[in-house]
Amino acid sequence: xxxxxxxxxxxxxxxxxAVESLEVCRVxxxxxxxxxxxxxLIWDLPSQSLRSKIRLPAGGIHVAWIxxxxxxxxxxxxxxxxxxxxxxxxxxxxxHGHTEAILNCVVSHSECHxxxxxxxxxxxxxxx
Length: 128
Fold this sequence. Notes:
single chain, mainly beta, 49% strand, globular
């Protein structure tokens, strides 16, 4: 058995609070990160640089991608979605229903639904 030691190729340090979630886009070379600092950051993977900074009205807890759209479950119970290519310039959609923080969100295989889990003891299915 041979042990390999790998170094960090780049340190991405734009967040000012704990990073809660990361997700790589399946259709574009992008990474999304969200934090309780209220920032949803979109990173360009090939250059390992910040592509856009999306300011959220609440802290982000979990992030997922639907094609080129990034969705973020927030600590105010709102799920927010926007085009990850456009950053703050893109139109934002909001999905309401939870009364507490969204802890997790997943996208259905058909990409027609987003399913969320919350501190309010519920799971909700949102249709796109």
